[in-house]
Amino acid sequence: MRLSLIALALVAAMTVAVFSANDEELSRLIDRAQSASLDQQARLYAEIAEREVKIADEMYTADKVPEGAAKVSDAVSYADKASDAAIRSGKHLKDTEIAMRKMAAKLRDVRRKLSVEDEASVIAAANHLETLRTNLLSHMFKGKE
Amino acid sequence: MSGRPLRLLSLLLVTLLVMAVHAQRRREPLTEAEIDQLRDQAQEPELRLKLYIKFARERLDALDKMRSDPKTTDRGTQTRDGLQNFLDVYDELNDNIDTYEDRKSDFRKALSSVIEADVEFQAKLRALQSSSNTNPAEIKVYEFLLQTALDTVDSSIKDHREVLAEQQQEAKHKKKPTGKSGYPE
User: Fold this and answer.
1) Gap between the Cα atoms of B90 and B79, Å rounded
2) Residue range B26-38: average pLDDT?
3) Distance from CA of A106 to the nearest CA of B (A)
4) Which of A15, B19, B157, B178 could serve as B118's disulfide partner, Cβ 3.0–4.6 Å?
């Protein structure tokens, strides 16, 4: 009994350590993105958004629905920033568009794990990413016309 | 409020609700039946990935069928939509592979099937790219998406082979027999 309690505590401690290490890494990445030049911001913000989506998936899988929803909302904010930076700088348009496409695909997969009342925000986020993607595509083609 | 305006209002509300539901689901590439099948295999990488292969293959087969049907109208747009459907499913397949890789799952067998399917998809997309009986105006409608699909499959084959090689290496290390000392012999 005592051994299993110790094992359980160790697993819990390791999980907390992994999450806080990820948080620290993410915070550093956010700092880097904020101080980066405009042409680097698209790539960095897209990476942050992708990580936020991944964390959201982990949260939903662990049945932490409000935390998952908060992460989805963060992901959308960073995706907006990535898209805005790509359009304003004219750099990394294609990479940012691909990131949006992949995040939307992940969110579609995530939403299928959720109940009807929890899925609305995830569907809205996936649709928003598709809109950003369409916008990026139109800028890519505008340059070619 | 009299009966008629109330009925009209209810009709309007129902229409708005249907439109909202449709808008919410506009980018759902899988059918409800396919989603149910995936849900049943949520914890089984092997079966789940095989389902995604099947769904992606069905999208490309439907595209082939549509293109070879002489009655098809607006082939450019329909080809573009078919390619988008394939790409949506293929992106999800890749996303699942990333998840299993992160979880350190052993899914070597499924990966081999995925790589076989990648090669098949690549060949089909290349055949579409080099089909000579297509008019330029039609190609223009879907060429970007076709190139995107080809680029995605090309880079994914490389990624999937790398993941498989890593998994095979890990499995080899795990299998190494240990001597009495506890060190590999």
Assistant:
1) 16
2) 87
3) 6
4) B157
CB within 8 Å of B168: residues ≥ 6 apart:
B108
* Angstrom distance (rounded) from CA B62 to CA A105: 21
Contacts of B109 (CB under 8 A, 6+ apart): B46
Determine the Cα–Cα distance for residues A113 and B116; give it in Å rounded to an integer: 29
Helix axes A93-111, A38-61, angle to 10 degrees: 10
Contact of A140 with A83, CB cutoff 8 Å = no
How confident is the model over B53-80, as a mean pLDDT? 95
Alpha-carbon distance B96 to B102, whole Å?
A: 10
pLDDT of B24 reads 47
d(CA B79, CA B125): 11
Question: For residue A129, which of A36, A53, A26, A38 has the smallest C-alpha distance?
Answer: A53
Is the pLDDT at B126 greater than 80? The verdict is yes
Chain A CB contacts of B35 below 8 Å = 112
Across the interface, of A57, A102, A108, the residue whose CB is closest to B28 is A108
Decide which of B96 and B177 is more confident: B96
Yes or no: say if A111 and A123 are a contact pair by the CB < 8 Å rule: yes
Going by C-alpha positions, the residue among A50, A60, A51, A47 that lies closest to residue A111 is A60
| pLDDT, tens only, B138-173 | 999 999 999 999 999 999 999 999 999 999 998 888
CA distance B43 to chain A (A): 12
